């Protein structure tokens, strides 16, 4: 941050905070299964750019478009009783109106009589649009899955 004005440094910190909130909101919107919590499918499109992508080789998913991502998530969560995301070790780098985020992620899933705990990494690209930061792409890479 050396060579930057105080204003520029503050803006960068505010951008990082906004991006982290966006990422955690995404997790909150796709979680379900306790205290009557359901997935907020209707709110998810507002988190993505119109041409966003969501990719996971392990899941066989490669989707483009905010509405298509929501439809894919509906299929992925159908029949599930519980889904809980926990993002850790976040590294967010901002370069003006674009940013990247690297996360380690635990996802607890329960459905069809089976519980799974998935450990994975998530690489995310963000872009600043007129109404704020949006997710441009998500790439998941599975590290391990624990089954009960």
From TrEMBL:
- Enumerate the Pfam families for this protein: SnoaL_4
Domain of life, per lineage: Bacteria
What are the SnoaL-like domain coordinates in residue numbering? Answer: 11-137
What protein am I looking at? Nuclear transport factor 2 family protein
Q: Which organism is the protein's source?
A: Paenibacillus psychroresistens
């Amino acid at each position: 941050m050396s060579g930057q004005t105080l204003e520029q440094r503050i803006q960068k910190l505010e951008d990082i905070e906004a991006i982290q909130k966006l990422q955690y909101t995404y997790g909150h919107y796709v979680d379900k299964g306790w205290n009557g919590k359901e997935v907020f499918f209707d709110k998810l499109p507002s988190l993505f750019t119109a041409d966003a992508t969501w990719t996971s080789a392990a899941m066989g998913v490669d989707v483009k478009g905010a509405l298509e991502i929501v439809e894919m998530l509906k299929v992925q969560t159908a029949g599930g009783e519980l889904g809980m995301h926990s993002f850790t070790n976040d590294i967010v780098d901002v370069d003006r109106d674009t940013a990247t985020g690297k996360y380690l992620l635990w996802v607890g899933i329960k459905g069809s009589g089976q519980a799974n705990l998935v450990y994975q990494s998530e690489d995310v690209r963000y872009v600043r649009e007129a109404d704020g930061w949006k997710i441009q792409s998500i790439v998941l890479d599975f590290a391990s899955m624990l089954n009960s």
